[in-house]
């Protein structure tokens, strides 16, 4: 969602280009017109190359938010070039990120995907974890624009646990909002609602509009589920929040959604007033692409009211603004609406002309989605992901080697020190059929264990299992640790990821060494895990020496095939 505002003063504050640029960047989302004004004012008195680069970046971002894509592109490209001359890699990263957003908004999805992949690589090289996560989030947005739901969900379900792990609350909230949008676009409205509601539960920090965005998406989900009163309530709450921060562009988008609700409630006069209010706000802030949407909604409504001339005028305005902002989706919709309106008016030649225009634009959109360059970029992204997975496999292998060594050392110490040692085997249980959901469930379980175990040895082996070695832990302590881990997985809000998704954890544990060898400890824990799983899953079992009916679930970690 574009969230700019037009509350910029006629004259900027004290004549300091550095201060102007700092403020311009700080208000770039909430007040894009002010960002543009401050950047232009600073450019008039700038002497340093670094300030010139930052001014170009601020100006490009602000112009993009206002829908002036052609002008914005030139500014961002200049910023990227200047930061390159300065050797400022973080400046390059920011410029690439804005360039990718700009390309996506302008409909050049192939270029956008390539840019965000480059942004992610640069963020990783700089050790900027948040930048890397945000780039992956943006890659998901591009895939969603392409209609590639599999890669979209993979990106979001990867960034979600990463943002949680690093305590990036704003990023976590934004990811859940993006996930809600993706589910909405797939028609999975209950899951869209669950993701939006989960984002409302995250305590975001520096981004005041995130809660409003979450409410806005909850409203869209309710609309899809035909719960129009609930949709109206959510949108009205979001509108109040956007109004409070002066975000007029966001208010305009909410007015469109409220207009759609009014139409479904057969309040056509109210819907028209809401669409006109949305249009007036977008004209005020200069949001070109947004005006295309408002004109389109208004034109379709006027056609329904049989106001043919007014409807045709509105739809032609929609087409003009869509073409100006290179918004192919809106352009495609405007031509189709014009075709239907002219056919309704009996003007078949004009109807045929706009049908041809609609089909041509639709073909361009289809070709973009199936372009061979896109396939190569997807392959590049997949190769990069495979590299990350190989790195993970190497780390897992190292963990297992360390575990085996530690088991040997522990075994040698047990008799001399009379110290109890516990070994836990845990397995993640779920019914997820999608790789992305499976990976998220497994990562969440491992992260939960990492958070709760300070000085104990933790190793992940295989896709869904991990092992924990706890020194100095008696049976009662081991039982308590197992229960905390089990509850942390059971209580996780999995419904935000997929409605009906349930993930549990079964654990088997053994305390002390039973036959003088590490393998004996492993076998005992392994048998306990077998009992836990066959008792109905989501269970804990501690090894009981008196049970003679145990079966061997695994032989030894040393014999584990990592594939």
Automatic annotation (TrEMBL):
Protein keywords: Coiled coil, Plasmid
Position of the signal peptide: none
UniProt cross-references to PROSITE patterns, sorted A to Z: GGDEF (PS50887)
GO MF assignments: diguanylate cyclase activity
GO biological process: cell adhesion involved in single-species biofilm formation; negative regulation of bacterial-type flagellum-dependent cell motility
Coiled-coil regions listed: 393-420
Chain ranges of the GGDEF domain: 419-545
Transmembrane segment boundaries: none
CDD domains: GGDEF (cd01949)
Any Gene Ontology CC annotation: plasma membrane
NCBIfam families referenced in this protein's UniProt entry, alphabetically: GGDEF
Protein name per the record: Diguanylate cyclase
Source organism (scientific name): Deinococcus psychrotolerans
